[in-house]
Amino acid sequence: MVADVLVPLGAMVARSSINGAPDVNNSTKNDKMTVNNEEQTRPTVSVVIPMYNEEGAAASLLKEVADNLKDWAFEVVVVDDCSTDETVKSLLDCGIDNLRIIQHSRNAGQSRALRSGVLAARAPFVATLDGDGQNHPRDIPTLLKRLISENEDPLLAMVAGERVHRQDTASKKIASRIANKVRARLLNDGSADTGCGLKAFKREAYLRLPYFDHSHRYLPALMTREGYRIEYLPVSHRARVHGVSKYTNFSRLAVAFRDILGVMWLNARSKFPGEISEVSKIYAIDEGCANVDQRTGEHTAPRDMREDETAGNSPKSNARD
User: Fold this and answer.
1) Rounded distance, CA 289 to CA 25, Å?
2) What value, to the nearest 5°, has the Cα angle with vertex 73 and ends 33 and 57?
3) Read out DSSP for 67-85?
4) Left (φ > 0), alpha (ψ -120 to 50) or beta: where does 243 sit?
5) Core vs surface per residue 30-51: b (16+ CB within 10 A) or e
6) 3-class state of residue 299 by DSSP
7) How far apart are CA 37 and CA 15, in angstroms?
8) pTM for the complete prediction?
9) N or C: which end of the chain has fewer CB within 10 A?
10) Contacting residues for 92 by C-beta, under 8 A, at least 6 apart
11) What distances in angstroms separate CA 118 from CA 110, 123, 164, 202, one per listed residue?
C-alpha cells in the first residue's frame, strides 16, 4: 500500500553501527549513495494504470505498453483497486520486468487509484490510460513527445488525448457528448473529451491539484485553475474485448452535477497571484529582485541583472559607475 505521503529519497536506508547506535558518517555516505543510485536508475516516464477486475485485459495491455515504450526509460505502475478476480495474478505472470503493482486493501475508485499510482511514480513525467484496453498504448509516445519537447513551455503541464472514432455503445457516446458540453460550458476548461483516460502530465503539477473522488474527470479544469496550460491531441480508441464497464450512464449522471458545482466553487475561490518575486538579499533592492516561477520553482535574475552578468560586470560595480 502507498500512503498519501511523499517520502524523501534515502529515507528508507537503514542506519546502524556495530553497537546498534546510529552511525552519522555511514548514514551520510549511504544517503548520498542512495540518492546517486536513484538518480541513475530513475525512469523518464511512469505509466500509471488503475485496474479493477481486468484479468482478461491486464497482461496483453502491459505487453503493448512495453512494446510501444521500448525506446524510453519507463516504469509501469499498476494500481489494483481491490480486484475480486485474478487481475493481480495476471499482472505477476505477464513477464514485464519494470512493473510495479500497488494494491488497495479496499475498493476506492479510479481517482483514488490514479492518485496512489502518481504518488508511487518515480519519474517526473506520468502517462495514464484506462486498464480496460480501450486506450491504445501506441499513442503514449506522441503525447510524451509533445509534453517533453526541446522548446518546452514551463507552463505546459498536460497533453490530453481526445478520442476519435469512439468504439462505445450509442447511448454511452450520446451521454458523454452531452456531459462534455455541459461541463465545458460551466467550467470553460477547453476540453472536448475530459473522460479520455489517455493523458501525459508533469507529476509535480498533478500533485499541486486538490484531490476529491472523481477528480480524474476534471484534471484539465484543475490544471487551468492552477495556472497551467493544457494541449489536446487526437488519439485512437478500441472496443472493449474483456470484462465489463465499471460505470453506467446513470451512475455518472448521479455525481456529475455535484462534482461540477464543486469545481465551480473551487474556481470561484481561486486567486492567482501572477508572477511571484523573491526579494534578493545579495543585490540592492533598487537593482531588482530574483524572480521565482511558482510552477517550476526556478529562480532567475531580472533581465538587467542577467545582461550585466553576461557582459562580465556585476550589478554592484555598475551601480557604483
Assistant:
1) 39
2) 125
3) HHTTTS-EEEEEEE-S-SS
4) left
5) ebeeeeeeeeeeebebbbbbbb
6) strand
7) 17
8) 0.71
9) C
10) 101
11) 12, 9, 26, 10
